[in-house]
Specification:
This protein is of the alpha+beta class. It is built from 3 helices and 14 strands. The strands form 4 sheets. Strands 2-4-12-7-10 form a 5-stranded antiparallel β-sheet. It has a 4-stranded antiparallel β-sheet with strand order 1-14-5-11, with helices on one face.
Length: about 240
């Protein structure tokens, strides 16, 4: 009688062969970005190399409120259900007097400014709702936040990956676009700025990774079983 010695190492190798099927991320560059300003409600900033985001805590600076909008074209992504997503932004100029926090919201299907025109968007024509000079976020999708940014973070890519971002990306696949708004939550009088797509860095990116297709998993499993059988035959001989 022949006994087969299946070692832990053999099982590990076969297991990896069977289930290790990492999906490649699709990295999307910014399709359009700009910011809107309460002080200049009819001005367009689509050609700027920076994106302003400021909501001062003090009413003394209420005329400095600014929001950034960033849109990505999802039409080139054809891999199916999203399993992971990462939104990356690059701070260009951050308040030096205190760390800054920024909440990220997604504009849902049918929402105002979802498919905004970078060259014409303004505060007044955005269609967004403002209450006492500040954005009403009740109809938006909360994605997550970039927290405690300081001047040392300028020029350093900041990443955000949350379950809410994945859910939002999946909800927007049929629409073909995803649009985010950057909302500063603890500003002073200083204009926080991020790189736009017109900047040297090229601005923000959205990285999307798909759920592996069942066929891919089946193929990997088949390879794993075949490899295990080959190793066992070799041990018999």
């Amino acid at each position: 009688m022949h006994y087969i010695n299946i070692t832990p190492g053999l099982l590990t190798i076969c297991g990896l062969l069977a289930i290790s099927t990492p999906a490649s991320a699709v990295v999307l560059d910014t399709d359009a970005d700009t910011f809107i300003s309460i002080a200049n409600p009819d001005a367009n900033y689509g050609a700027n190399t920076n994106l302003n985001a400021l909501v001062p805590e003090s009413s003394l600076y209420a005329d400095r409120v600014r929001y950034t909008l960033i849109r990505f074209d999802l039409s080139s992504y054809t891999e199916g259900t999203v399993a992971d997503a990462v939104l990356t932004v690059i701070p260009q100029d951050i308040n030096f007097s205190s760390s800054q926090d920024f909440s990220i919201y997604g504009i849902p299907v049918g929402g105002a400014s979802l498919d905004f025109n970078e060259s014409t968007l303004t505060w007044n024509n955005s269609g967004l709702t403002f209450i006492d000079g500040q954005l009403d976020t009740s109809g938006l999708t909360y994605i997550g936040s970039y927290s405690d940014l300081v001047p040392d973070d300028e020029g350093v890519a900041q990443t955000l990956s949350t379950a809410e971002l994945v859910d939002y990306a999946n909800s927007m696949l049929s629409e073909g676009i995803a649009t985010f708004i950057i909302v500063n939550t603890d500003g002073t009088s200083f204009f926080n700025k991020f790189d736009s797509k017109e900047s040297v860095s090229g601005g923000s990116t959205l990285s999307i990774t798909a759920v592996p297709e069942p066929g891919t998993l089946a193929l990997a499993l088949g390879v794993g079983v075949f490899a295990m059988a080959a190793l066992l035959r070799k041990r018999r001989s």
